[in-house]
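Problem 12. The chain below contains 164 residues. Write out its predicted structure in token notation.
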Amino acid sequence: MRTIFIVVLLSLVFPTLLYAKPKLHVSEKKLLHVLMKIENPDNVPNLVGDKHLKNKAIGPLQIRLPCLSDVNWIVGRKEMRRIWGKSRLNMKDMNDIKMAKWVCLTYVYYWGEIYEKQKGKKPDIVVYARIFNGGPDGWKNWKTRCYALAVKQHIKEYEKKKKS
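Solution.
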């Protein structure tokens, strides 16, 4: 019990200790495809959404500052510099599809691992999508239910296309 407490405490203080290349329990390609169909169905470059909110959503995956801040914190400056050649990503970077996808996967991977520890089960694509849409506890937030329905619909469409 003491060891678990120390590991959890260290992971909160030094989140980069637990950081590794994101490896989800679902198809990354399918998750990203579904999220991009919901967030940017017309594939508009340099899209700015959620204009009514303080932190606008930027880019093809409509990433907002709280998500990006979490990823900068999770990864840490040293690792970020190693991966992207700079110590922190900024909102303008979210217009770059490669960076936006990486931020999305890193974010849902990290909070998906927390979900797995709390619930004792692996997150599925809907859980990952609800986390992406509603934040770390988005998987249980009633505000993400409609988003979950849209995800399920796009999964069906994705699988239909894949079969044909």
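Discussion. Residues 3-10, 12-19 have pLDDT under 50 and may be disordered. Students who got a different answer should revisit the alignment rule from Section 12.3.
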